Amino acid sequence: MKIVDIRATTVAVPLEAPLRHSNGAHWGRFVRTIVEVEADNGLVGLGEMGGGGESAEAAFKALLPYLTGHDPFQLEALRFKIANPTASLYNNRTQLLAAIEFACLDLVGQHLGVPVHDLLGGRVRDEVAFASYLFFRYAAEGHKEIRTPDQLVEQARELKREHGFTVHKLKGGVFPPGYELECYRALAAAFPEDRLRYDPNAVLSMAEGLRFGRAIEDLNNDYLEDPVFGLEGLRQVREQVRVPLATNTVVVNFEQLASNVMRRSADVILLDTTFWGGIRPCVKAAGVCETFQLGVAVHSSGELGIQLATMLHLGAVLPNLGYAADAHYHQLRDDVIEGGKLPYVNGAIAVPSGPGLGVRLDRDKVARYAELYRETGGYPYDRDPGRPGWYAQVPNERFADPDISVEVRT
Length: 410
Prior knowledge:
Blueprint: E1 3-14, E2 19-21, E3 24-26, E4 29-39, E5 44-50, H1 54-62, H2 64-67, H3 75-83, H4 88-91, H5 94-112, H6 116-119, E6 127-129, E7 134-137, H7 149-163, E8 167-171, H8 177-190, E9 195-199, H9 206-215, E10 221-225, H10 231-240, E11 245-247, H11 254-262, E12 268-271, H12 279-291, E13 295-298, H13 305-317, E14 348-350, H14 363-376
Parallel strand pairs: 7-8, 8-9, 9-10, 10-11, 11-12, 12-13
Antiparallel strand pairs: 1-4, 2-3, 2-7, 4-5, 6-14
Helix pairs in contact: 3-5, 7-8, 9-10, 12-13
């Protein structure tokens, strides 16, 4: 089996509403690039990458000369062909590699008639649990804004009722830390049996990070995720706060993981199949974490069904997966895979059992959302449509005003 073609299509899939985060917003849609790697036996493997447009499509097309005739089984050679660690200082191809790796694993699984989790050592669980992943958001057609503690609790109740979540993650860093602490404690009061986690995407100052961490020590926390930026910043918070710390921002490769092992800063490593360059590097990293008693969880970078499948296969094979995974997935209105969005049952999603990744494209939806992308274009992830001219700093001092309700058009 040899690779003969690579195709990339950028799509824009609508969200229920624009989601606010510490560095900007998701402007009412996720822009993703769908990758198809075709082999000489007629099989097509699927991959996915965040962002997109002509530049992403051109970047994948530019990989074809590197990969024409490449055997999808040769995954270690694939890594060096695309993302040689010294050459990648100049070409930054880690996320391209991830999408191609997904597709190659999909091809191999289809060729052998086995699911990807069998290629990774075999599953140890049949489903992967997820957290509710709560956002402050702007109002959109059919969906109310989420700005106040009461609105946040109402949203969490709806998601718990619909999907069965028992873990709730609040994406913070939007409003002043004291206000978000009030929101977080409101969630804890509303769901005393459930577990909580808070993630301000590293924009808090050291003083605010310590203040927030100490103020939640009495709650049923999973962890405090990236309250401040950098391994040294996390280490200082960890030494002074009795809540486990997690990161997805500053441990995204093996050198950073080694630094965290030698000088412990984070207790939980959030493994992202895109950020780490594929599923297999995440499995390797989880093995290191198991050895050094670091917790692991599966991170979400804004997935459609293809990347969600990679997260499910990853979660299926990790014996030391001790936390519910993150997913933006329930914030989407639709998906590009056959059968529509994968369902949650009791807060979990079943691991696909079909060959390869176990998902296939709905061609009509790909065409529809490719057209939507052509109509709407991309959006600046690090800007907020309700705060013209604003941009985040690290640490941030210019938070949004929680008393102001803003209408936006995206």
